[in-house]
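Q: Convert this sequence to structure tokens.
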Amino acid sequence: MSYILPPKIEKEKSDPKTLFYKITAISVGVFLLLFLFQKSANYISNKNNTNNNGNVLGVKSESENVSKIDELKNKLVLPPIIIPGTPKPIINAKNYILVDQKSAEIIVAKDEYISVPVASITKLMTAVLTMENGKLDDIATVSKNAVYTNGSTISLAIDEKISIDDLLNALLINSANDSAIVLAEHISGSEEKFVELMNSKAKDLRMNNTNFLDPAGLNDEGKSSAHDIATLLSYALRFDKIKSIIKTSEKDITSVSGLNHHLVNSNRLVKEEMFFSGIIGGKTGFTPTAGHNLVSAAERDGHILIAVIINTFSNTNTASAEECKALLEWGYNNLKYFY
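A:
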């Protein structure tokens, strides 16, 4: 093997004018590199990151007047890392995802972008649109269409008068399909118009693998993905009212018409039987086609994790809660945070 030495270069004499041009050229080059780096960082951040309000995956800020400093602070959140040597969790579901809300980092996932039926998890979108387009103290009238809705209901009566606040509680605690229909009709005039609003909002939130077909999630042709559902819950947590409802285990409501309705949360992680430490709450979903599904968020030491479980391998009533609990616990036990 031969080694070729570089040719000898004669040392240039120092000339002040030449030196000035060189320094100027280097400065301009460094500036351009920093500019391109910033643009690249902004593009990646806008595509993947969240802000401190938990708006994952490029969701627009609630305020149009967020300062540039706050924007930069939001983009500088370092995601947690999995402790080296930690094996991946064994999650018995067809699709799942675990997301750190503040950084919007996907910690671990399986088939998270595939569009699948998500059943009553759909009601999270109905709740968001209720908060954005309805008034909690408004009174709605229950239609015949709502009363004859299939599946989980709170047995509303035709022409019963009930507040939007109570309907929202029934929607998220009891997963009441009749409440979902009443809310949709009250806000948009019809289910069909409300579904248009749902899909428009999904587009705004960049839920690219989602297409809703009804406000309750009864139609299995309506689909979403684990990734999109994590986005949706993260956005929903911006509303204190939703946060307070989804952590409620039981509640009694009385309609304006004087009818009593007892609500029991379908999410076992907020109830004593399977309570998860730090739980914020979430939403269940089940149809025979969609299987057992659950999205839940929890917070420990200021760190919020969002777990989505779709279509568990087991068909037991506790399956989605068991898998969601295991995924959240794995996250809190095996992540190293930098904030």
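The first helix runs from residue 16 to 48.
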